[in-house]
Amino acid sequence: MMLAIVGIHTKADSCTGITLKSNDGANIVARTVEWANGESPSDYLIVPQGYEKQSMLPDGTKTGMKYTAFFGYVGLASEDYVIEGLNQVGLSAGLFYFPKTGSYPKYDESLKDKTISDTEFVAWILGSFETVEDVISALSSVRVVATDSRAQNLHWRVADKYGRQIVIEYMDGIPMVYENTLGVLTNAPAYPWHLTNLNNYINLHPGSADSHAFGDIYLNPIGHGSGLLGLPGDVTPPSRFVRAAIYQTSAPEFENAIQAVNQAFVILEAMTIPIGIQFSDKTKIPNIPSATQWTAVTDMTNNNLYYNTMYNPTVRKIDLNSIDFAKVPYQQHPLDDVKARPIMNVSVK
Predict the structure, then answer these.
(1) What is the pLDDT of residue 110?
(2) Are 108 and 143 in contact (CB under 8 A)?
(3) What does the DSSP assignment read for 82-103?
(4) How far apart are CA 13 and CA 188, in angstroms?
């Protein structure tokens, strides 16, 4: 299991999160998950009420904080470590890679009964709380640590069905909580830096730029969308943050939740990272079809979790309303039964 924990940290190089709303009151969060260095096991978990776990500690033992799921939830996971999930009362939580930024509290063996691994933080949140405010109030009751000294840090997005969303980042051992009213999240640097960086793109806007004189000549926009000339197109976290913010805020109004869900998948397709661009030595590229492993869209208002994968772009839905979390057994299933892109023949008569 230690290898799985390290794997999450060393491979989850890029994640992009956005937020959409619809006119019928639905609150939607969505995100991609990437592993640059190869394919990671990807499953969905059904976790019932009353499910008990004990956290892994830096010494490699599962003797940390014990926690029991008061609420049932569905998690999208690597091994059994939840990366993104939704609980039965409409709380969403997800981890995002946060390399070389911030630091967790130092591990104190005398406090191990309240110490939880950073990779188990999402599971604890989903099983324990109903609202963002509940999560904030409980942060002082736990100590988050990394379970391997070689691992990089994480930060987290938490959102509830009432529309509130926060980012949690540990700085010098202290949990910093930021209201994420924009609804976008990527990776390092820290969240406030990304908001400041948006000011560098104040000139960008949807639509076309105005024609105007330029000395003795007259300049006209070439093609549609010239208002976004200068939009960064690389895959670094700052550039993805800017691009996601522009795409999200320029999205049209949605009459209902399913329209917003569909648009979330469309926007995140533009954030997909293809395999190859992160490797200078092309002889050592992992044999996977894309660095973006899967995409998840969560409708917290209607308690639906959607996903598709690098193997199968077909959108699949898990309806939490159809699950009796008081009776369902714990279960784990692969996101893809078959790891091959489905191809449908078109019948020509």
Answers:
(1) 96
(2) yes
(3) EEEEEETTSEEEEEEE-TTS--
(4) 10
Contact (CB, 8 A) for 127 and 142 = no
The string of pLDDT tens digits covering residues 58-105 is: 999 999 999 999 999 999 999 889 999 999 999 999 999 999 899 999
Q: 311 is written with which tokens?
A: 């193997």
Ramachandran angles phi, psi of 268, nearest 5°: -75, -20
Residue 232, both tokens: 């960064």
Position 5 scores a pLDDT of: 38
Q: Are residues 272 and 36 in contact, defined by beta-carbon separation less than 8 angstroms?
A: no
Domain boundaries, the chain: 2-192+252-257+271-334
Q: What's the count of helices (H) and strands (E) in the chain, helices before strands?
A: 6, 19
* Burial of residue 43 (number of CB atoms within 10 Å: 0-12, 13-18, 19+): middle
Cα 187 to its chain centre, rounded Å, is: 10
* Confidence at 4, pLDDT banded by 50, 70, 90: very low
- DSSP class of residue 128? H
d(CA 320, CA 220): 52
Beta carbons within 8 Å of 30's beta carbon, 6+ residues apart: 17, 18, 19, 20, 261, 264, 265, 267, 268, 295, 296, 297, 298
Alpha carbon distance 177, 169 (integer Å): 7
CA-based radius of gyration for the chain: 21
58 close to 107: Cβ distance less than 8 angstroms: yes
Maximum Cα–Cα distance across the chain: 76
Q: Is 85 exposed, middle or buried (0-12, 13-18, 19+ CB in 10 A)?
A: buried
Number of neighbours of residue 47 by Cβ within 10 angstroms: 28
Measured CA to CA, the distance from residue 209 to residue 226 in angstroms comes to: 5
Q: Which of 1.10.3720.10, 3.30.70.141, 3.60.60.10, 3.90.180.10 is the CATH number of 2-192+252-257+271-334?
A: 3.60.60.10
